[in-house]
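Students often ask why inverse folding is considered easier than folding. One informal answer: many sequences map to the same fold, so there is more than one right answer. In these notes we will look at a single instance of the problem. The structure comes first.
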């Protein structure tokens, strides 16, 4: 895809406080601009080569005068990638990557500064996994808040390479909900599509049920079921 086709989309500006989100946006931007940018990130700048006349089993760099039009295009990808990354950075990070000799080097430097070494990444994953295993709702916390916290934690885990089966995620969410939703939670768990239902869908069903309970509370207060039925009968009789 030509970069001109996404010229209306601005380069995602570096956001240190939300680095993982920025990284995702930047990856999508690069893919939309030119999918070959991802090859440059993974493999580094393209270097045109040809067979070594003295040893056909080896390759040697081609002189620029022998580059084909396609090779020139591939070589220029690294310059375009560097320009995009520099344009995205704030002043402090720009100084950190300006000494890098390639787009791949820039990207790896940003990752190292923001994510740390492999040991740091593994330690972060261990912390996130522990947080997931111990995840529970807070006193008086709303369903929406529980959903948002769990969803954010799952996104962090996914970025660090840790994923869970959909059934396990849904089950984790259900177990964190307040006891007054137990009946509805049980009925949702018994659905045949529970194992494949998205977390957003599970949340929507539980949130809708909670709103219905709140509406009933407004109408009837904290009366017992018998009192509610009696009031309903009296209202019907008057009508």
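Output (designed amino acids):
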């Amino acid at each position: 895809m030509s970069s001109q086709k996404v010229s209306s989309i601005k380069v995602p500006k570096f956001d240190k406080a939300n680095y993982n989100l920025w990284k995702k946006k930047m990856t999508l931007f690069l893919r939309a601009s030119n999918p070959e940018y991802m090859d440059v990130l993974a493999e580094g700048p393209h270097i045109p080569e040809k067979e070594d006349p003295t040893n056909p089993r080896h390759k040697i760099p081609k002189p620029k005068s022998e580059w084909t039009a396609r090779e020139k295009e591939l070589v220029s990808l690294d310059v375009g990638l560097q320009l995009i990354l520099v344009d995205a950075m704030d002043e402090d990070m720009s100084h950190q990557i300006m000494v890098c000799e390639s787009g791949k080097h820039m990207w790896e430097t940003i990752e190292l500064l923001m994510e740390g070494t492999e040991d740091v990444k593994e330690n972060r994953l261990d912390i996130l996994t522990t947080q997931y295993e111990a995840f529970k709702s807070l006193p008086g916390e709303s369903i929406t808040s529980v959903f948002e916290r769990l969803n954010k934690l799952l996104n962090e885990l996914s970025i660090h390479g840790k994923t869970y089966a959909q059934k396990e995620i849904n089950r984790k969410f259900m177990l964190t909900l307040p006891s007054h939703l137990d009946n509805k939670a049980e009925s949702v768990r018994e659905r045949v599509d529970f194992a494949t239902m998205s977390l957003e869908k599970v949340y929507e069903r539980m949130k809708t049920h909670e709103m219905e309970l709140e509406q009933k509370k407004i109408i009837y207060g904290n009366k017992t079921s018998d009192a509610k039925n009696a009031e309903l009968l009296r209202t019907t009789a008057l009508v």
